[in-house]
Model the fold of this input.
Amino acid sequence: MRWLPPSGMSGRALEYDFREGGRYRIELRYDGKRATASAKTTDQTDITHGRFLELRPGRAITQSVEFESSDPTFAGEMTMTWSFEAEAHGTLVTVTADHVPPGISKADHGAGLRSSLENLATFVERV
Done:
């Protein structure tokens, strides 16, 4: 959870069973004390739960993602795949998302994923 939360957020795993078929539940919390219109579960948090649908070591992780929200525009199961491809100087990580709820704009979703990927790059470079 050190790198997954986009900029301006922190996170914690509430449940995490990392295996095919395993379930997870995570909380992403917006930094700061003010409420945000972007939050999906409470004024300060996004809570998601899902399953690890497919794990291909060194190649890809596919998972289902559902937001816990009373707003129907965030309802439904999204599928995300994190793919890994070896390159000369590291690993190319690509994220695809299918069935993104209509309450999440393409621009906001893209910005959040880019931020997470930048955090991952920084985290890996420090290790």
